[in-house]
Amino acid sequence: MTATMDADLLVIGFGKGGKTLAGDMGKRGQRVVLVEASRSMYGGTCINTGCVPTKSLVFHSGRLPYASAVAEVERLTAGLRAANLAGLAPIPTVTVLTGSAAFLDPNTVAVTTATGPVTVSARQIVIGTGSVPVVPDLPGLADCPVAVTSAELLGRVSRPDRLVVLGGGYIGLEFASMYAGYGASVTVLERRPAVLGHEDPEVAETARALLHSRGVTIVTSATVTGVQTIPRPGGPPEASVEYVLDGRSTKIGADNVLVALGRRPNTASLRLDRAGVDTTDGGAVAVDDFRRTSQPHIFAVGDVNGGPQFTYISLDDYRIVLDQLTSASAPRSAAQRHAVPNCLFLTPPLARVGLTETQARAANYDIRVATSPVVNLATVARARIVGQTEGMMKVVVDAATDRILGAALLCHDAQEIINIVALAMRHGITATALRDEIYTHPSMAECFNQLLGLLK
Question: Is 115 exposed, middle or buried (0-12, 13-18, 19+ CB in 10 A)?
Answer without folding.
Answer: exposed
